[in-house]
Input
Amino acid sequence: MIGPAERGATPISTVAAPATVRRTSVWRRGTSLIGRVLSTLGRHGPLLLALSLGAGWVAPDLSQAARPWLPLAAFLLVLGSFLSAALARHDSCRLNPQLLIAIAFAALAPPVVVGLALRLAPFDADIEMAALLAALAPPTGSLAAIAAMLALRPRFALTLMLALTVSAPFAMPLLMGLFQLGGQELSVPMALRLAVIVGAAALIAAPPVCSRLERVGVLPDTDAASGVAVIGLVVVGVATAGGVAALADAPDRLMVLVGLAIGLNVLLVSLGATLFWRHGLATALTVGFAAGNRNVTLVWAAGASVLPVAAQTYLAVCVAPILLLPLVLKLILAARSRLPRAEHPIP
Output
């Protein structure tokens, strides 16, 4: 028989349920907010990258404070790329001879071309080493975003970047030995750091984890995955701009380094686009950008403790055109879209 006290008692489940619902609601709102912030960062990435360079230039102390965070920035770049690939289930890039040739070209052509160019126009040994290290790096993590902005082949670009990034811990030390860059004292520590950065990003972007992040709203779309990479790129922009600004007192040397970085970039982009032209404009320019725009942040983060100061300075200069390129291209495309299109009569 149930007593009055028992009849009037409120079940424990009905007391706990509202608290559980409130906690779940707060959690959902928090993860949804993170997802919206990441999506916003991804959509406005080009402008944020340009602003990060300006912030690092005018605030050297901020730039100096950002430098210890470069390994984390490199990790976020790779993580954003892996997450973008995981979310792009509707679009695939099939393994075919064209892709294999493009991967081989993007891996081998840059160091060979840069090595030949430096033989024709030699520089200081540290600068030459940095230029070759930059050429040995995998394509920049923003390669797919650039391809998407230009309406090229973003999934093809992403596959190129991922293939070379995943192989970087193994391929870069071998190529460094081939080009006689630093020997074991440089290649082994760099390989270990690259393995940690790439391996950790691959684990976090594994399908179970990525699906969970997608379900709770942290990754609502591919823009959010790009936003993860944008955070890392902003850190890179702030950190590297200070290194470039430090050369303001030596404008002649600054112009030489900037000219070398831009010249090699344009040379590799043009070469890739020319050699792959018969495969179509979209494929040609995608391969060209993969060859010219390298993930120097990954090299800098992996070898910061063993690279000479002059080499680190050149790597900082290399970052500037890579970060500014998306905004420049976006402005050019916007201006082009406003031009009246010529109408041709149908024959």
